[in-house]
From TrEMBL:
Residues 46-76 form the DUF1232 domain. It comes from Streptomyces termitum. This is DUF1232 domain-containing protein. The keyword Transmembrane applies. The chain crosses the membrane at residues 12-31, 43-60. Keywords: Membrane, Transmembrane, Transmembrane helix. It is a multi-pass membrane protein.
């Protein structure tokens, strides 16, 4: 019976962590809207983002799991690269106008 309690706690922690990551993901997705329209962002970064979204909704999964950990991870990496490209574009614009 003790093992069952630990398993239940593990799943609740896993679900809570997934929800926390999903909240961060939602904020990053909202912020990504303007980056996708920015002409200073390389097209490769934009395509990586769209590819990650396709992977998120596709039925194919690298790690079959009930909480979509690999899907969220792929999307977070794509968003991070998109935001880095956005920061570099802002720096280039500041250097060009300064």
């Amino acid at each position: 019976m003790v093992g069952t309690d630990r398993t239940g706690v593990f799943w609740w922690v896993l679900v809570a962590a997934t929800l926390a990551v999903a909240a961060v993901l939602a904020v990053r997705l909202f912020r990504a809207r303007r980056l996708l329209a920015d002409s200073g962002i390389p097209m490769s970064r934009k395509m990586l983002f769209w590819g990650a979204l396709v992977y998120l909704v596709s039925p194919v999964d690298l790690l079959p799991d009930p909480v979509l950990l690999d899907d969220i991870g792929v999307l977070l990496v794509a968003l991070r690269m998109l935001h880095r490209a956005g920061a570099r574009a802002v720096e280039r614009r500041a250097e060009g106008t300064g």
